[in-house]
Amino acid sequence: MLSIFFGYDKDAILNVDTYFNNTYDEAYFDDPFVRMIISKVDHSEVQDRQCILSPVLGQIPPERLSGGAKALILMYEEDDFYTDLIVCGRNCEKLILDIAEKKSIKCSLSGYDISFDNLGDNDHPTPVRCENDGSLLRNHEEFVLKMLELVGKKIPVPGGNQG
């Protein structure tokens, strides 16, 4: 299941490039699902653990993958990876839901870039849990309405200046 905190969360990793480049395991690239992520998001093909063939850039190391591909790989491979989905493009939506069908993942969403058009279809029947209020979002419309309600809303900080 996918759980999302709507709004800015200072604990979410925003610099996915640096995090990935310093933590990834070469064994990730042996996994067929990771290879599929790279194919679908970056339209590239894994040649081996250190070489990816990009139609635009030629042969590249894993560090040159897009931020979206890196975020998806980390969501899939690491159990405690927590990022803001603003680092992902719309081309990542289906794959985020695919990963959430395989394992529980938690993310935040501080922008309006992701709307999960496929949420609730036959391939993605599992709802998204809203971390803000515990509600379950079962389809695209419910997701968008919750996002519009909560993203950008000022959240009071205990003991902080409310001005």
Task: Supply database-style keywords.
16% strand; 3-stranded antiparallel sheet; 5 helices
Written description of the protein model:
- By secondary structure, this protein is an alpha/beta fold.
- The protein has one domain.
- It is 31% helix and 16% strand.
- Strands 5-1-6-7 form a four-stranded mixed sheet. Strands 2-3-4 form a three-stranded antiparallel sheet, with helices on one face.
Shape: globular
Strand order of the largest sheet: 5-1-6-7
| Uncertain stretches of 5 or more adjacent residues | none
Helix content percent band: 25-40%
Over the alpha carbons, how many angstroms does the gyration radius reach? 17 Å
Oligomer: single chain
**Overall average residue pLDDT:** 93
Distance between the termini: 37 Å
Backbone structural class: alpha/beta
How many separate structural domains? 1
Order of helices and strands: EHHEEEHHEEEH
- Beta-strand residue percentage: 15-25%
Number of strands: 7
Main sheet attributes: strand count, strand direction, barrel closure: 4 strands, mixed
Give the helix tally.
Answer: 5
Pfam family, one: DUF4869
Protein name: DUF4869 domain-containing protein
InterPro entries: DUF4869
Organism: [Clostridium] aminophilum
Put the structure in a nutshell:
31% of the residues lie in helices and 16% in strands. The protein is built from five helices and seven strands. Helix 2 (32-42) runs antiparallel to helix 3.
Topology at a glance:
Layout: E1 2-6, H1 16-23, H2 32-42, E2 45-48, E3 51-54, E4 58-60, H3 67-77, H4 93-102, E5 105-109, E6 128-130, E7 136-137, H5 140-150
Parallel strand pairs: 1-5, 1-6
Antiparallel strand pairs: 2-3, 3-4, 6-7
Helix pairs in contact: 2-3
